[in-house]
Write a structure and sequence with these properties.
The structure holds two protein chains of two kinds. Chain A is an alpha/beta fold. Chain A has a single domain (9-306), classed as Rossmann fold (3-Layer(aba) Sandwich), CATH 3.40.50.970. Helices cover 44% and strands 10% of the residues of chain A. In chain A, the strands form two sheets. A five-stranded parallel β-sheet of chain A has the order 1-2-3-7-6, sandwiched between helices. A two-stranded antiparallel sheet of chain A has the order 4-5. Chain A is globular, with a radius of gyration of 20 Å. The termini of chain A are far apart. Chain B is globular. Helix content of chain B is 35%, strand content 18%. Chain B is built from twelve helices and 14 strands. The chains are: A alpha/beta, B alpha/beta. The interface between A and B is large, with 49 and 51 residues.
């Protein structure tokens, strides 16, 4: 179990690039929503990028991920292509789910990405099952299950923690605590606002980490992933973070002050890493600008891909409800 | 071929599929016999007595006793299905679906469609339903109409031990989530059941008997009731077709329509509460597609729109009986014959 990261230039560049890709991608999503290219519900991850980037870097390709409706970050960090992701958000059949899922239901079995999930707490029992399936089939992979602190209020959180611990299943529970479940502040929702303390009731090891610091998240996640893999036991990693934008596109944010948001913006995980890299001379503005330019080009290409995409033919409306052919 | 009870037929289907396919696993409350001391393993085969002997044959690794944690284990079964297992979960009473419904209708039922055909969830949930056991309001419901309403689920309601074995093997081999309903007063029913594995396809109704005057469609345990009614009616010269749809999703509407076209009269017997149940669903579809063939109004024989009472007197009155079915059939025969347009 190693806790030391090799913070070489390439590694730090990757972390910054991964977070910037998510941030810029979603800024474009926001624009596209305003121009009604993307419809329905859209939940942005602005401010929380360090969590998915820091955790998913520590996973192996054969590890599984279960996510939430705020999952564009996880999807990109996992390597789901920006083109098929954007096409999915448009609802085009070139999307990763043929445009059937949309923003809240990104799924890619080849990436072991077992879904965004639009039901708060809905993914936790599934993650237990994915880990069970792997373990029973003799695989050594683990399952990372992302959920917000709002899901901790659901019974499924408690049932899943208990069952994963009882059955010794390799699940990394990653709580993205952004302090608000929709508009309800943590201390108004939780009798015990320290989420790590809840794990004790299930004999699950828990740790909290500054979710606005991607290196800290990666270090903690590496420790957690190693523990899960070595012990085949669940682990709860609480990443304390903040979303800068509204819960969804239909949220006037009357429950918090602009000052509070501004205070948190000073801890922006991307700005923090970038200014540290610049101040320490590890990266220069020129190199960062080049990364930005590459990302902008990738996003332009993704938008063009989605724009050029096609709607699924209406003849397929009733396809895929159940299997096409039934075995005898 | 030998006489087997409904309970033995289900047990045999599970055992034979577990022998055939190592990815078939069981989970549920006390399915292995509880979490007691080693000596108590497999003591009773679960509250339904259905899984007895399976843990000693397949081990704790494949027969998982769960705590009373339906959301977690039904969801875990769905998640494990996504990763290549074929879990058969036992949810003791269908009434308990209330605490884990999200995992069934928002999760398992949606994956294939919502993920563009790229996911499959080969999951079976076996559950006990029905009135007649003096089990009162929270342990006696049918509820299969609710599952039938949800696209992506398959709903199987076997009417006999033979049907149960063939349909359960089919359910386990199916790649979609299947809800498999076992009536709690039918576990000791016996009939000849083949020893070898066999399957019964979904969406193919069974003609239990064929007659000329009236088509009776009956669901689950009501097939027995309808058959008894048909026996009595035959003595009065009324000849009934009794049709068992076997699965309400998919539903073999075609067989029902063809039978109604022959007899011109339809009675539907459903133990589920009468609003938005299988009887109303079939009735609506027949009216829409075969109205011209009907010589008389469709009649439904269902319980009243009440919870299932505990009082034995009230519960007996709640359940559709052969006498009630026969009376309704007589009334259909007595109604002035409508000139069939066809």
């Amino acid at each position: 179990m190693t806790e030391k990261l090799h913070l070489d230039h390439a590694h730090l560049r990757d972390l910054l690039t991964a977070m910037l890709r998510i941030r810029r991608f979603e800024e474009k999503c926001f624009e596209l929503y305003q121009s009604e290219k993307i419809r329905g519900y859209l939940h942005l991850y602005d401010g929380e990028e360090a969590v998915s980037v820091g955790v998913i870097r520590t996973l192996r390709p054969d590890d599984a991920i279960v996510a939430t409706y705020r999952e564009h970050g996880q999807a990109l960090a996992r390597g789901i292509g920006m083109n098929v992701l954007m096409a999915e958000l448009y609802g085009k059949q070139e999307g990763c789910c043929r445009g059937r899922g949309g923003s809240m239901h990104i799924f890619d079995r080849t990436k072991r990405f077992y879904g965004g999930n639009a039901i708060v707490g809905g993914g936790l029992p599934l993650a237990v099952g994915v880990a069970l399936g792997d373990k029973m089939q003799g695989r050594t992979s683990i399952t990372a299950c992302f959920f917000g602190e709002g899901a901790v209020d659901e019974g499924s959180f408690h049932e899943s923690m208990n069952l994963a611990s009882l059955w010794r299943l390799p699940v990394l529970f990653v709580c993205e605590n952004n302090l608000y479940s929709m508009g309800m502040a943590l201390e108004r929702a939780e009798a015990e606002p320290d989420i790590t303390r809840k794990a004790a009731g299930y004999r699950v090891t828990a740790e909290a980490v500054d979710g606005m610091d991607v290196v800290a998240v990666e270090v903690a996640a590496q420790r957690a992933v190693s523990a899960v893999r070595e012990t085949s036991r669940p682990y709860l990693l609480e990443c304390r973070t903040y979303r800068f934008r509204a819960h969804s596109m239909f949220d006037a944010q009357l429950y918090r002050t602009k000052q509070e948001i501004e205070t948190w913006r000073k801890r922006d995980p991307i700005d923090r890493l970038r200014s540290w890299l610049e101040q320490s001379g590890l990266m220069h503005a020129e190199e960062i600008n080049k990364i930005e330019a590459e990302i902008a080009a990738e996003i332009d290409a993704a938008v063009a891909f989605a724009e050029a995409g096609t709607w699924e033919p209406v003849e397929e409306l009733e396809r895929f409800v159940t299997m096409d052919r039934v075995p005898q | 071929m030998s006489k087997k009870s409904f309970r033995q037929a289900v047990n045999e289907a599970l055992r034979q599929e577990m022998e055939r396919d190592p990815t078939v696993v069981l989970m549920g409350e006390d399915v292995g016999g509880g979490m007691g001391a080693p000596g108590e393993d497999d003591a009773w085969g679960g509250p339904l007595g259905v899984t007895k002997g399976l843990m000693s044959q397949f081990g704790r690794e494949r027969v998982l006793d769960t705590p009373i944690t339906e959301s977690a284990f039904i969801g875990a079964a769905a998640g494990a299905a996504l990763r290549g297992l074929r879990p058969v979960a036992e949810l003791m009473f269908v009434d308990f679906m209330g605490v884990c419904f999200d995992q069934i209708f928002n999760q398992a039922a949606k994956f294939r469609y919502m993920f563009g055909g790229t996911a499959k969830t080969p999951l079976v949930i076996r559950t006990m339903y029905g009135a007649g056991f003096r089990a009162a309001s929270q342990h006696s419901q049918c509820l299969y109409p609710i599952f039938t309403h949800v696209p992506g689920l398959k709903v199987v309601i076997p009417s006999s031990p033979y049907e149960a074995k063939g349909l359960l093997i089919q359910a386990i081999r199916d790649d979609d989530p299947v809800i498999f309903f076992e009536h709690k007063v039918m576990y000791d029913d016996e009939e000849d059941v083949p020893d070898d594995p066999y399957t019964i396809p979904f969406g193919e109704a069974r003609f239990v008997r064929e007659g000329e005057d009236v088509t009776i469609v009956a669901i689950g345990r009501m097939v027995q009731m309808a058959s008894k009614a048909a026996d009595a009616l035959a003595k009065e010269g009324i000849s009934c077709t009794v049709l068992d749809p076997r699965t309400t999703s998919p539903l073999d509407l075609q067989s029902i329509l063809e039978s109604v076209q022959e007899t011109g009269r339809l009675v539907i017997v459903d133990e589920a509460n009468p609003r938005c149940n299988i009887a109303t669903d079939i009735s609506a579809q027949v009216v829409e597609q075969a109205f011209e063939s009907l010589k008389a109004p469709i009649r439904m024989v269902c319980p009243p729109h009440t919870p299932v009472p505990f009082s034995p007197a009230l519960e007996d009155a709640f359940i559709p009986s052969p006498e009630k079915i026969a009376a309704v059939v007589r009334s259909v025969m007595a109604s002035p014959t409508r000139q069939a347009a066809a």
